[in-house]
Write a structure and sequence with these properties.
mainly alpha, 175 residues, binds fe (ii) ion
Length: 175
């Protein structure tokens, strides 16, 4: 397996880990009776799962070995309603750095096909860091009036992400 293939296998685990963390956050908000915040993170969890499966499809196409990873237990307890979004933003920033490192590695190896595959993820991370930054501001502003946060999210809606149209194919199909 190439070094890049190995590193991309590692990223599959990070994406599944991100998915599991978002499920934990969604469940936390669901239990706090905040259905819009819960729905937002249930959706994010599915997106992260899809990212993992896009990478799996790439590895299949590239005839690389694939080790379906286990996932570290996510954080399930939070000090207040702002903490999960702060954690989510930190996670998105970390993933951005991980993708950047993968791009550098692909470039070092002269793997332009692998590098091109990752370009979509760079755009996706820009979008996700921006939207999570905005959500953190909304939740911080509304932490004493959570219904206003819920209303903000219901107005914002799911909003079809323009990036989704150009997303790489996911193994087994995106959910
Ligand atoms: Fe992701
Ligand atoms: Fe993400």
């Amino acid at each position: 397996m190439s070094t890049f293939g190995e590193a991309l296998n590692g990223q599959v685990a990070y994406e599944f880990g991100a998915s599991q963390q978002y499920i934990a956050i969604a469940v936390y908000y669901d239990a706090e009776n905040l259905p819009q915040l819960a729905a937002h993170f249930y959706r994010q969890a599915v997106e992260e799962r899809n990212h993992a499966m896009m990478m799996v499809q790439y590895l299949l196409d590239a005839d690389e070995d694939i080790a379906t990873p286990g996932v570290e237990a996510p954080q399930t307890e939070f000090s207040d309603v702002v903490a999960p979004v702060a954690l989510a933003l930190a996670q998105e920033k970390r993933v951005t750095e991980q993708i950047v490192e993968l791009v550098k590695l692909a470039r070092e190896e002269g793997d332009l096909v692998g590098e091109q595959f990752l370009h979509w993820f760079l755009q996706e991370q820009r979008e996700e860091v921006a939207s999570m930054t905005e959500l953190l501001a909304v939740v911080e502003r509304g932490k004493n009036d959570l219904l206003s946060v819920e209303e903000h999210l219901s107005r914002a809606g799911g909003g079809e992400n323009a990036l989704e149209a150009g997303a790489p194919p996911a193994a087994g199909g995106a959910l």
